[in-house]
Amino acid sequence: MSGPTVFRYLFIFIIAITGILFGFFDFGSPYYLELVDESGVVQLTLPLDEGEKFTLSYSHSVHRTPVNEIFQVSAKGQLMLVATEFTSLGVGTPFLPEEGELKEVDGKLVLEGLNRVFNQLQIRPHPLTKHCLLHRQGRYLLTDYVGAGTLVTVRVIERGIDRLFN
């Protein structure tokens, strides 16, 4: 076989194998939720589907009561705050009509209809505030991944070809 013919068959073979791999394997969710430390190192990666919800949970710094901020992945792959759950009104808790629709559900105050979009969240977790991510069936305490007071970034990224085999 001549050189060009060999390359043509090799090219066809590679395309065929690639098609088979993509046809037979489910490569998972189209997005990842990442926790990135101050130096840019990814400390935690969680799969996310478009529209899937996850929660940032913490203890309110003034009231010392639990707060759940419920996010979902927007159609553009951004973080969208869709609701906040808390147990008492007061300093630092939203309550105005323009902030969303406030309801009482199972003894909790739930502010819905927020739909606030963020490119990323920056947090300084602390043992007192107990910041954690609630994702699917898991609970991920942020201070298990970074030191107390360390600036961390929570962001959504699209799955890339380099992540398919991780």
Structural notes for this entry:
This protein is mostly beta strands. The protein has one domain (29-163). It is 13% helix and 43% strand. It has one helix at residues 3-24; strands spanning 31-36, 42-48, 53-59, 66-73, 79-86, 101-105, 108-118, 120-123, 132-135, 138-141, 152-158. It has a 7-stranded antiparallel sheet, with no helix packed on it. A 4-stranded antiparallel sheet has the order 2-1-11-8, with no helix packed on it. Strand 4 (66-73) and strand 5 (79-86) form a beta hairpin. The longest helix has 22 residues, at 3-24. The radius of gyration is 21 Å and the shape is elongated. Mean pLDDT is 82; it is low at 162-166.
Task: Write out key terms for the chains shown.
166 residues; four-stranded antiparallel beta sheet; 13% helix; mainly beta; single chain; elongated
Mean pLDDT: 82
What strand order characterises the main sheet? Answer: 6-7-5-4-3-9-10
**SSE class:** mainly beta
* Element string (H = helix, E = strand): HEEEEEEEEEEE
Which overall shape is indicated by the principal axes computed on the Cα atoms? elongated
What is the CA–CA distance across the termini?
Answer: 38 Å
Ranges with pLDDT <50 over ≥5 residues? Answer: 162-166
Helix content: 10-25%
Proportion of strand residues: 35-45%
Rg from alpha-carbon coordinates: 21 Å
**Count of all domains:** 1
**What's the β-strand tally?**
11
